[in-house]
Design a protein that fits this description.
It comes from Heterorhabditis bacteriophora (Entomopathogenic nematode worm). The protein folds into 2 domains: 121 residues, no CATH class; 62 residues, no CATH class. 8% of the residues are buried. With 201 residues, the protein is α+β, with helices and mostly antiparallel strands. Helix 1 packs across helix 2 and helix 4 packs antiparallel against helix 5.
Amino acid sequence: MHDSQRDRLSIELLDPPQDMQEVESQEPRFISTLVETNGRYDGLIVHSPHEYETILYLNQMGVFNFVDDGSIQGCAVLKLSDGRKRSMSLWVEFITASGYLSARKIRSRFQTLVGQAVEKPQFSSMEGDAWAMNLTGAENVLLGVLIQLVSCLQCRRCAHYFLPQLDLLRGKPHHLLDQSSKLAWNLVRQLMLNARALENL
């Protein structure tokens, strides 16, 4: 199996450390490298909110030899030690007919285990928390837009984004602008003071 091969799961992981612990408990041959230090995890590279990278060690690898097949410079493949029968290996389901350890088969098994871990009830219940976090982000964006709108309505001028010289509120009755400003400000207050405001709006 080549060390240079990196594969990303298409499954959205809500809690990578817990997911990896669950995988390790289901399949002791996979060892997670995540170590918690001062509230953060070493060995975890986060690419985006839904994508991360970690190194996974394969346990009990003593029956294999490293073989440089020359396919990728600086990398080696794992092959059963001479004299070992394929059926006697702990990794029998991942070994090809020629005795090599198959990266594709291991990757497939790992992805299946992660998928099962995410579907477990304790992990599925976290989806509500993830939704709440997404709503918090939406609230902040909405607040920013509404506050900007209040400012424009009170100044009775709203410049076009691409054509700043064009006033979108030009010619509108002042009493309607004031009334709209008050309505927008009420929305801002509700969003700021009521944590569940988006559910009621």
